[in-house]
Amino acid sequence: MKLKFCGAARIVTGSCYLLETAGTKVLIDCGMFQGTKDITRRNYEPFDFLPKEISHLILTHAHIDHSGLIPKLVKNGFRGRIIATPPTIELVKIMLEDAAGVNEDETVHENKRRQRMGLPPREPLYTLKDVRASFPLLKPLEYDKESEVAPGIRMKYRNAGHILGSAIIELWAEGKKIVFSGDLGQWDTPLVDNPTIIPDADYVLVESTYGNRLHTDAHTRGDLLSETVTETFERGGKLMIPSFAVERTQELLYYLHQLVRDGKLPKEKIFLDSPLAINATKVFSKNMRYFSQKLRGEFKDPFEFNGLKFLRSTQDSMTLNDYPAPCVIIAGNGMCSAGRIRYHLKHNLWKKQNTLLFVGYQAEGSLGRVILEGAEMVRMMGEEIAVKAQIRQIDSFSSHADAGELLKWMGGFRKKPARVFVIHGEQESSMGLADALTKRGFETHVPAIGETVEL
């Protein structure tokens, strides 16, 4: 039995792992690469396998770095089943449709540049037609239900506590048990339950996004958000929050709802300026049964409240350029690399009274990372923009477990697995977690993209 690391190895994005048994090839995740041009170029390279030979794709969750190349997979011949939890299926449909639109728009701009350089045009990575061709292949599997997905391969989903519908995969093949952590969430977050502890495995693939860091402000994130909003409003400014459409936006809405309910915020408007995030929020509201009991007891619908306004159209978004009062603007994408947040930065990043608040991971090479690391000027949308706004970060809004929580999850194995593969992290983070696990008696390995191991 062979396991090949096709993405998210010594890098955070592009999650994709190929498991090959004597008679079957199964893919775990098929994610898009995000970040610098050197990284995103991988999206246009051929797969490390023949898509038509893959019998099943098993998704851990809907985030684009885990699902974003599904349409390309189908476009290149995959006709197998795509297994996912029911909420993941709902979310992945809207996310892939959005990704196709972004992809086609970016290709138009890229081809104008290529035309000026005398280069041939480039086809989009995939189209809306390719996206919708993948939908009939999606097959739901609930948490904790064991299923034979292919001859000789059984699996079960367990709650990963990361986002709505996110899952850990327990997989049995050729007499061995392999656990894929997917992305693990923090403990004691308001939306979803804690990650499921798995007691046994022969092999484990564990993520390491925050493998060498701790979330120091985890229990004060609501208070920190309140302080940031209040300080910005006192300056008469706008608070811009680049946010991932799925989970991060909904967690922000939950905390803002709490603050509005408790009278801890000035009565100014909160704008959710992202059609994708609005659609995702509707999916969240529809699937309340998958959330924690605490959340279901606190709010009938935590994601709608007085003062919150959804902006779907481009025209509505543009009205914020001249909006005269202080306000909160939540817009995608979370790394400032695309989406409406870039237009808000263009109009507001150079104004001292405003604040740019980061509440999510900023990948190496992203505009968000550049700003967070202290750039005084940034180039975007063909212009040089001065960074004069206040720059803030609340690290604990991350939907990823930190180093301590990853070690806590790994400590749940009653017997040490034969080997632990540390994945889904920048090299320093992965190595840091691997070192910590080695000190605790685990046999660890940090694989590289393209590497194949025998199990």
Can you offer a commentary on this structure?
This protein has 455 residues and is α/β, with parallel strands linked by helices. The protein has two domains: 2-213 and 399-454, Ribonuclease Z/Hydroxyacylglutathione hydrolase-like (Metallo-beta-lactamase, Chain A), CATH 3.60.15.10; 218-397, Rossmann fold (3-Layer(aba) Sandwich). Helix content is 30%, strand content 21%. It is built from 14 helices and 22 strands. The strands form four sheets. The chain has a seven-stranded mixed sheet. Strands 7-8-9-10-11-20-21 form a seven-stranded mixed sheet, with helices on one face. β2 and β3 form a beta hairpin. The relative contact order is 0.15.
The radius of gyration computed from the alpha-carbon positions, rounded to a whole number of angstroms, is 22 Å
Count of beta strands = 22
Strand content: 15-25%
Give the strand order of the largest sheet, numbering strands 1, 2, ... along the chain: 6-5-4-3-2-1-22
For the largest beta-sheet, the strand count, sense and barrel status come to: 7 strands, mixed
The first-to-last residue Cα distance is 5 Å
Specify the helix fraction band: 25-40%
CATH fold topology of the largest domain:
Metallo-beta-lactamase, Chain A
The name of the CATH superfamily of the largest domain reads: Ribonuclease Z/Hydroxyacylglutathione hydrolase-like
Number of helices: 14
Low-confidence stretches: none
Q: What CATH architecture of the largest domain do you see?
A: 4-Layer Sandwich
What structural category do the secondary elements indicate? alpha/beta
Average pLDDT number: 94
Number of domains: 2
Shape: globular
Q: Give the C-level CATH assignment of the largest domain.
A: Alpha Beta
